[in-house]
Design a protein that fits this description.
A hairpin with a 7-residue loop joins strand 4 and strand 5. By secondary structure, the protein is α+β, with helices and mostly antiparallel strands. It is built from two helices and six strands. The longest helix is centred in the last third of the chain and has 13 residues, at 71-83. The strands form two sheets. The protein has a four-stranded antiparallel β-sheet, with helices on one face. Strands 1-3 form a two-stranded parallel ribbon. Helices cover 20% and strands 35% of the residues.
Length: 97
């Protein structure tokens, strides 16, 4: 089941270094959660990418690719996902800049 972020709530400023450009980001993370995030979440979190993997007879898994300025930014994303009921499956540091 797809869940959308509540209307009127926007991303907390400072979660991502820049919108539209990741040149100042210090690290890239892959975040996997159980469930299917709607594309409306892209506006909520800012400039990230999202992919949903659904296999027949299994639960959906969403992978977010986030370029974050620091660990506090990543924790902000994780806290938001937790608050909206998406269980964390994995967090992976892909590249540190």
């Amino acid at each position: 089941m797809r869940r959308k972020p509540p209307k009127g709530i926007s991303a907390v400023p400072g979660y991502f270094t820049m919108r539209g450009s990741w040149t100042d980001a210090r690290a890239m993370y892959l975040i996997r959660v159980l469930g299917e995030l709607d594309s409306a979440w892209l506006d909520y979190f800012g400039d990230i990418s999202l992919a949903v993997n659904t296999r027949r007879g299994e639960s959906s898994v969403t992978t977010l690719c986030a370029h974050a300025a620091d660990q506090a930014a990543v924790l902000g994303i994780l806290n938001s996902l937790y608050q909206f009921g998406y269980p964390l499956l994995s967090l992976q540091l892909v590249q540190a800049f």
